[in-house]
Each structure stands twice: as C-alpha cells, then as structure tokens.
C-alpha cells in the first residue's frame, strides 16, 4: 500500500529555528518546506549602555523580554564579567517573559522566577502589569520592530518605559525563498505557518519581486494559512489573505496543532 502523502507546510522562521521547527512539523505529520523570510541581526542602539547601567545599579523595577532572541542578543553584547553581574542584577528585578520559549531561555541563565502573562502577547503583558506599574521603571530589550502597543499601554498605566533595540530583522534573499513562491503558485503547498508580521511582509515582498503579488493571494487563500496572534493575522488581512487559523496560545507548536486540525 502506498504511503499516504504528508501535507506540505511552509516554515519561514529564521535560520536558528530551522532544525527544531522541521522536527516538530514532522512530528505533527507534515512535510516541511523551509524558506526563511526573516533574518535576525544583532544591533546595539544608544539605549543599550544606559539600560545596562540602570539594571546593574538596581534602578529598574521590571525587565521585559518579548522573545528568547531578546535575551540571547542582550547577553551577546556583554563580557563574561558583565554577563555575571547583569544576571545577578536581573534576579533582583521583576522579570517578565512573554511566553514559554522566552521563559525557557531565562531558565538557561538561572532565572527561574520570571512572570508569564495569561495571554502570551504584548496586550497580555499590559493587562497583567497595568495595576502595579504606576511610577515604576520598566525596561524593554527587544527587536527594532517591536509593536508600539506595549510601550503605549504601559505608559498609559503610569510606567516609565525605556526601550533598547538589541537586534533587528531583515528579509533574506535566495533560491529557497524563490522556490517557496514558485511552489505556492503551483499549488504544491498545503499550509503556511506565519509567526510574525515581518514574515508576512518578507513573503509578499518576494512574491511582488517575482511579479505574482496578486496570483499569490489566490494560492494562499486556497491553502490553510495559520498566524501566531492577531497582529500577524491582521497583517495578512491587509494583503488580502485570510488567516484560517489563529491559535489561542502564541507558540509555534500550538500553531502546527491548529493547522493540522484544519486540514
């Protein structure tokens, strides 16, 4: 008896997530088609040194990490001694992790008391912290493309918010990306797992460069399109694409599970 065809799922996460994502997709019965639509690059803005000094001096009441990458790229900028002192100081502040993956990354560096909001999103953090942040100093170490809703929300609740960009995102170019667009147009991709707005923009930029911005929408709307969270779903909508699947939990695994149920 011929083996049943596995549904092909497009995975577009950054290179560092490749192996983990492909294994997980295979575990859920998918045939992964990998083409990164986002590249992560470390950066250091003028806010970094003051952020470091405030944390070391115990002047920060809260430090919020909205991704595991935020932690990695923050530590990458520190010498071994600075790293030790920084982690020691972090343990004395209230640490917020946006979700389980970020919490895991904190556990790796010995921080085991981070707080997770009930809803793994910027809105979820604002909702959870609003009653207690008035007059408090809140630090944000994240990507240069972080949603404004977090800063605006916390400031509305009376917090003093400092943001430093520890990494930025760009759109990779290459044969993998071109192949994904071609196979999408040929109807060979059954499902798409979009995990950020930037990923949607990267995908559509490649489609536009290949002159297929309009036809790609039809191909996507005939497949199962999954989005992590409403912001990513809204970005797809702006491009005329329906996100059939937005799981309640903002994790890649929850997204795979929800897509699987929809197929």
List the defining traits of the structure above:
4-stranded parallel β-sheet, alpha/beta, 9 strands, 5-stranded mixed β-sheet, 263 residues
Structure write-up:
The chain has 263 residues and is an alpha/beta fold. Helix content is 45%, strand content 17%. It is built from 12 helices and 9 strands. It has helices at 18-27, 48-56, 68-75, 80-90, 100-108, 122-129, 148-156, 175-185, 197-209, 213-221, 229-238, 252-262, and strands at 8-11, 31-34, 39-42, 62-65, 94-97, 137-143, 160-170, 191-194, 224-227. The strands form 2 sheets. Strands 3-7-6-4-5 form a 5-stranded mixed beta sheet. Strands 2-1-8-9 form a 4-stranded parallel beta sheet. Strand 6, helix 7 and strand 7 (160-170) form a beta-alpha-beta unit. The longest helix is centred in the C-terminal third of the chain and has 13 residues, at 197-209. The radius of gyration is 20 Å and the shape is elongated. The model has no long low-confidence stretch (mean pLDDT 94).
Q: Can you tell me the overall shape?
A: elongated
Order of helices and strands: EHEEHEHHEHHEHEHEHHEHH
Number of strands: 9
Helix content: 40-55%
């Amino acid at each position: 008896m011929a083996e049943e065809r596995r549904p092909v799922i497009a995975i577009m996460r950054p290179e560092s997530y490749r192996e983990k994502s492909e294994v997980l997709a295979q575990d859920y019965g998918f045939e992964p088609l990998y083409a990164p639509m986002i590249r992560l690059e470390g950066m250091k803005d003028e806010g970094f040194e003051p952020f470091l000094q405030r944390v070391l001096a115990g002047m920060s009441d809260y430090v919020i990490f909205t991704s595991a990458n935020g932690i990695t790229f923050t530590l990458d900028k520190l010498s071994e001694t600075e790293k030790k002192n920084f982690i020691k100081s972090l343990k004395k502040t209230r640490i917020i992790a946006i979700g389980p993956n970020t919490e895991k990354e904190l556990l790796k560096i010995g921080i085991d008391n981070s707080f997770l909001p009930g809803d793994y999103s910027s809105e979820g953090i604002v909702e959870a912290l609003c009653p207690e942040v008035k007059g408090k100093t809140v630090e944000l170490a994240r990507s240069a493309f972080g949603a404004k809703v977090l800063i605006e929300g916390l400031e509305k609740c009376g917090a003093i918010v400092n943001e430093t960009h520890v990494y930025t995102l760009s759109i990779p170019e290459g044969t993998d990306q071109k192949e994904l667009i071609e196979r999408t147009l040929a109807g060979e991709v059954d499902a798409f797992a979009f995990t950020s707005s930037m990923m949607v923009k990267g995908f559509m930029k490649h489609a536009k460069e290949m002159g297929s911005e309009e036809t790609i929408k039809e191909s996507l709307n005939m497949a199962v399109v999954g989005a992590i969270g409403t912001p990513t779903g809204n970005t797809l909508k702006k491009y005329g694409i329906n996100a059939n699947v937005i799981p309640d939990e903002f994790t890649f695994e929850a997204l795979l599970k929800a897509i699987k149920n929809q197929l």
